[in-house]
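Hi P.,

Sorry for the delay on this. The queue was packed all week, but I finally got your sequence through. Input first:
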Amino acid sequence: MAEGFTPGSDERARASRLAVLSLLDSAREPFSRTHFVPGHVTASALVLSPAADRVVLVFHPRLARWLQPGGHVEPSDPSIVAAAAREVLEETGIAVDSRVPPPVVGLDAHDIPAARGEPKHQHFDFMFRFVARGGDPGDVPALHRTVWCPVDRLAEFDVDSPLRSAVRRALANPPIGDRPQ
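Then the structure:
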């Protein structure tokens, strides 16, 4: 999967791609959330509105930042893509359109601070582009705040450079499917 991803000119994206490839080549269980040295694969989602003019953001209270939905790959997930889609539904209540293929639009290796009995480690995140089946973020009790952010207002939510780059890649290669034009 990572081999088909072209990070462009962003140095962090190039370094992340090499780190992901190294992890996949060397780790015995790179998808296990208990693999801490150096870390493990996670799955996240850039969720576009059906008109591809907005993206879903989730407020992460521990990090105090707006991010894309995502999380750990669970043993019950049939694939990393399925893990990303599951995380979207769990965190936002939004179902993704299964008729629209979800390409990789981002790879990011980033540090995770020690917390909840886990040591400091890295997440090697695969970000997939999905299209929502429609509607607003759902009312998911006890979870993070979610918003539809217009793609031209990402700076107002102080999103990080990997997510901004992924949005640019997603919009440069628009989804194909049964959505309004």
